[in-house]
Write a structure and sequence with these properties.
45% helix, 225 residues, single chain, two-stranded antiparallel ribbon, mainly alpha, 4 strands
Length: 225
């Protein structure tokens, strides 16, 4: 059952509060194994999950596969099983470490949060190969361009935000939820306001992306932070 965010927005009369408020209310709660901060019955969690899910579902990884000047590359994905391939401007399959397609552990068209957590985030950290064909900054910058286009697409189509079927913010989906929702809120981004108004305004959209870029690079530089 898909939960359409528009319905939630009609009944939500206050700004979204941080989904980590309970987690950090006290040292005792922060050290407990309780997962109320990720309780899917919490409207704030539903709202932030809807944002992350819809953003990643609409993210086409074209720029992520156009690194080192290969700007003519095109990225394709088979929706049935999530298999991907990249073709250069001549129509040849790209096989170099910088931009080649990779096997996906999670289908981006069906499980976009898990795809980010299991496929995209490891790629951002280490790339496709053992040799340093690209830098983390290059990979993050490429993906930020893809996210920019996704936000513009969502605004242009007006489709709203919705949570996935059988959602789970822990386990396979956690890295995506942690980086996009929890860390953004910790950095001062109000996801409710951004979803409701700001993502269609270029100035606010660019500030959001700059903040997310900083989070990505900070986490890569210090994964324990």
């Amino acid at each position: 059952m898909k939960f359409i965010l528009h319905a939630c927005l009609l009944v939500c009369t206050t700004l979204i509060t941080s989904v980590v408020a309970v987690e950090h209310a006290s040292a005792q709660q922060a050290n407990s194994t309780d997962t109320n901060s990720y309780d899917l019955s919490n409207p704030d969690v539903q709202m932030s999950l809807a944002f992350v899910h819809t953003l990643l579902l609409n993210t086409r990884e074209n720029h992520s596969h156009r690194l080192n000047g290969e700007v003519g590359n095109e990225y394709f994905i088979r929706k049935q099983d999530g298999a991907e391939a990249v073709f250069n401007i001549r129509g040849d399959v790209v096989t170099d470490c910088s931009n080649r397609g990779t096997p996906n552990k999670a289908n981006p068209a069906q499980r976009p949060l898990a795809h980010f957590s299991l496929d995209v985030w490891p790629w951002m950290n280490t790339g496709n190969c053992n040799n340093a064909a690209t830098s983390p900054q290059q990979r993050v910058d490429g993906y930020i361009k893809d996210l920019r286009e996704a936000l513009i697409l969502i605004g242009d189509t007006g489709g709203g935000f919705f949570v996935p079927e059988n959602p789970n913010v822990l386990e396979d989906n956690f890295a995506a939820y942690y980086l996009f929702a929890i860390q953004l809120e910790r950095s001062g981004i109000d996801l409710y306001t951004f979803m409701r108004y700001d993502f269609v305004v270029e100035q606010h959209r660019e500030a959001f992306l700059a903040n997310l870029r900083h989070i990505f690079l900070s986490e890569i530089a210090d994964p324990s932070s």
